[in-house]
Amino acid sequence: MLEKKMKEDKFLAKIETKNDTLSKEFGRILHTFEEIRIQENGDSRPPDLFILDVGNDPEDRLDRFYPLFQSTSIGEVFVTSPMAESGIILKAMRAGAKEFLPQPIDAADVKQAVKGFIARREQMRASSPVSPGHLINIFGSKGGAGATTIAVNLAVTIAQEDSFSKVALFDTHSRLGEIPLFLSFTPIFDWSEITRDIDRLDDTFLMSILYKHTSGAYVLPSPARMNNYLPLTPDVVDLLMNAMRRLFDVVIVDTGNPLNETSLKMFELAETNLLISIPSMPYVVRTGRILDSLRSAGYQSVRAKIVMNRCTKHPEISLKDAEAALDRKISGLIDNDYPSTMSAINQGKTLEWVAPGAEVTKNIRSLASGFVGLKKG
Ligand SMILES: Nc1ncnc2c1ncn2[C@@H]1O[C@H](COP(=O)(O)OP(=O)(O)OP(=O)(O)O)[C@@H](O)[C@H]1O
Ligand SMILES: [Mg+2]
Q1: Ligand 2 mean position to 8 CA, how many Å?
Q2: Ligand 1 atom closest to 173 (CA)
């Protein structure tokens, strides 16, 4: 893992040439820099440094590779050519090349250029620290509490309200999680791709697995079949959440209701833990037991906020009694509205879509407003 981390920290360089001798010459020089790693076959991360050999046909090659210069995912482009006339150099620089390296290449010149590249990139890294995204763990106190309804609608509402924030929704269920049903899509990938090959986990791999919903939220579904997938362990959750928080401003997790090592890990990692309850005896009792379990497992259960779902005018247990029984304040209330929530599920649409004016939708909007504008600095 350490090796993987070090690999990720290095700047990735790609040498684009049909000339093997030239490729080896550049390779030898780049290898002298420990900050740089040369792109291998199968490396999907876009390079930080792209060295483009435009050979003896610079005009044509510069035109053909023009989109590359415009790409925001590629760091810097160096152009090299045996034809070093001023017109060609000017064209390369105007396209956006950072350096022009005439051939035959001069090792000292190339080293100087690479040093400049490393200095600029390191400066960029230092001046733009990426603060981790905000992780919201949605935990059902008991089956049917409304964890999935709240996770899905919260994610979609935040994504729609805040177009600057990147929002992700992750379904940790071991199988047959219901998020695809709630959002009416058929998943191609799910998190078993990640547990199967955790060493491959990088930004490109993760983004290739996520499904983009029309609201803008990115979804990582749970396995839909009983295939031989590897489970989510606390270590995998740790790595995966790290990766997701690097990419997204808000990560919402539908953890369901199992109390195990993996869900405890989620409680530990999350900035916000929402414990979903219902003002009725079995749910309130179970909510109390979960708080006790968290406390005895050494987790700061104080950080878990209670959201009472399916609230009616005359609940089976009054909110005052529930607060007294749980010895804590209730942080959020969501109206009981079975027709709206069921109609949303049946249509595979969000509450915003099927019942924009309903109290339940307003309650979710108000819960979401606490997580809007969390764009990473
Ligand atoms: N605010 C609400 N008012 C009325 N019904 C609701 C509300 N929230 C959820 N429901 C209904 O409760 C049922 C369970 O909801 P949901 O699937 O979201 O719960 P869950 O905690 O994810 O359940 P599971 O344990 O099966 O994962 C659904 O039929 C849903 O329509
Ligand atoms: Mg659920």
Answers
A1: 35
A2: 27
What confidence tens digit (pLDDT) does each residue in 326-360 have?
Answer: 999 999 999 999 999 999 999 999 999 999 999 99
For the domain spanning 134-369, the CATH number is: 3.40.50.300
Q: What is the pLDDT of residues 52-91, one digit of tens each?
A: 999 999 999 998 888 888 776 778 999 999 999 999 999 9
**DSSP letters spanning 257-298:** S--SHHHHHHHHH-SEEEEEE-SSHHHHHHHHHHHHHHHHTT
Confidence of residue 301 (pLDDT cuts 50, 70, 90): low
CA–centroid distance, 179 to ligand 1, in Å, is 12
pLDDT confidence tier of residue 5, bands split at 50, 70 and 90: very low
- Which residue ranges have their beta carbon within 6 Å of ligand 1? 140, 143-149, 256-257, 309-310, 334, 336-338, 341-342, 345, 360
DSSP class of 230:
P
Segment 183-214, tens digit of pLDDT: 999 999 999 999 988 988 888 889 999 999 99
- For the chain, domain boundaries: 11-127, 134-369
Instruction: Output the CA 275–ligand 1 centroid distance in Å.
Output: 14
| Distance in Å from the first CA to the final CA of the chain | 27
pLDDT tens-digit readout, 214-273: 999 999 999 987 777 888 999 999 999 999 999 999 999 999 999 999 999 999 999 999
| Residue to substitute in 169, 336, 338 for testing ligand 1 pocket (most ligand atoms within 8 angstroms of CB) | 338
Identify the nearest ligand to the CA of 179 by its number.
2
Output the CA 240–ligand 1 centroid distance in Å. 27
CB proximity list for 10: less than 8 A, separation 6 or greater: 34, 35, 36, 37
Identical topology for domains 11-127 and 134-369 = yes
Please state which architecture CATH assigns to domain 11-127: 3-Layer(aba) Sandwich (3.40)
CA angle 282, 233, 221 (to 5 degrees): 75
What's the confidence (pLDDT) of residue 128? 60
CA distance 226 to 90: 59
Q: Rounded CA gap, 243 and 75, in Å?
A: 21
